[in-house]
Predict the structure.
Amino acid sequence: MFLAMQSWLPMCSYTTDRGRLVSIEELADLVLLRAAGNLGASRYLLGICGPPAAGKSTLAASLRDAINVGRRSIAAVAPMDGFHFRTAELAESGRLDRKGQPDTFDVVNFIDRLRLLRNSDTEIAVPWPLYDRAIHDPRPDALTLDGNSIVIVEGNYLLLDSPGWSAARGFLDETWYLDGDRSVIEERLIQRHIRGGKAIDEALRKVTASDLPNAELIAGTKLRADYVISEYDGQFLMVPNE
């Protein structure tokens, strides 16, 4: 599969010891090509997985925008973060300190919505929750996926092989794992928590006790992805899992 992909990808001026780098526009063209061959399915579902703060949301949004250039909005992003349990629920169950770990998400509802995306016609509206960082809680049905033939599902645990989560992979046509440097991820996480209102000491504790162990757990799912994606100065390297 990788040889076929290499023959399709245009030459570019950046190379690494693992292969050629491509732009976000070239990645968008690749998704369009794959989606066009997705005969017999209503929507093409691309999963983008990876550790927290690796840049999944940014990649997904950039990819969506590149796909939609010159077209009606055929692509949309469906983030997994909207399926967090509410803060009050987590506090009541004693899980608030572990917010962001797999059991702090409503995986049953997440899988149900994925199934609906997979099995319903493109013109069937599918409501989707979004996480609001201003209030630190999800907003139910804040997004409506309607008329989108390509949906980019992004989140930490799309490839987790555990009860509940393991069903997600079966609803996705293709999955990409976005890799990232640990030191960069750690700094981004600290800054994210500070922007969210935490003091520096509290942010450091959260990153050390929860976020980085989550990142290690997610890294263990990398081999279940179809491709591992790495970013180099705005260009992207795709390496297939064999």
About this structure: Residues 1-14 have pLDDT under 50 and may be disordered.
